[in-house]
Design goal:
There is one protein chain. The longest helix is centred in the C-terminal third of the chain and has 15 residues. This protein has one domain. 25% of the residues are buried. The chain has a 6-stranded mixed β-sheet, with helices on both faces. The chain is an alpha+beta fold. The radius of gyration is 14 Å and the shape is globular.
Length: 120
């Protein structure tokens, strides 16, 4: 399985010191059925622990996941900054997930070469 993060998420993860290993572990958790919320349409919400803290006071990340396919980290927020995503945001993420899942290998290659997607 190939795992990617978009440019926005990459900057968020760097700023918050979230490692690629933590992201890989989050994907492994989702793959094995240990996820926080299946929001439908391949959109998942997963908790990540804050450095020196637990998951409950940590981060929430939005992940586009399809088993046996590609995974995309697209958005994250600290639980202390935002309670949850809105229904409007969720609808947008579902639409975006479909677009991401439909990317051809060539489109993925172009997006990684341009820096719009970063492969983990």
């Amino acid at each position: 399985m190939r795992i990617f993060k978009n440019g926005w998420f990459s900057r968020f993860a760097e700023r918050e010191a979230i490692s690629d290993e933590e992201l890989k572990a989050a994907v492994a958790d989702i793959e094995s059925g240990r996820f926080d919320a299946d929001l439908g349409g391949g959109v998942y919400k997963q908790r990540l622990a804050r450095s020196g803290g637990g998951k409950s006071s940590g981060y929430r990340v939005i992940v586009f996941f399809k088993s046996g396919a590609r995974t995309f980290f697209v958005y994250g927020f600290a639980k202390s900054d935002k309670d949850n995503i809105s229904k409007k945001e969720l609808a947008g993420y579902k639409t975006l997930a479909k677009t991401y899942f439909d990317f051809t290998d060539k489109q993925i290659e172009t997006a990684t070469e341009s820096g719009k997607l970063i492969e983990i």
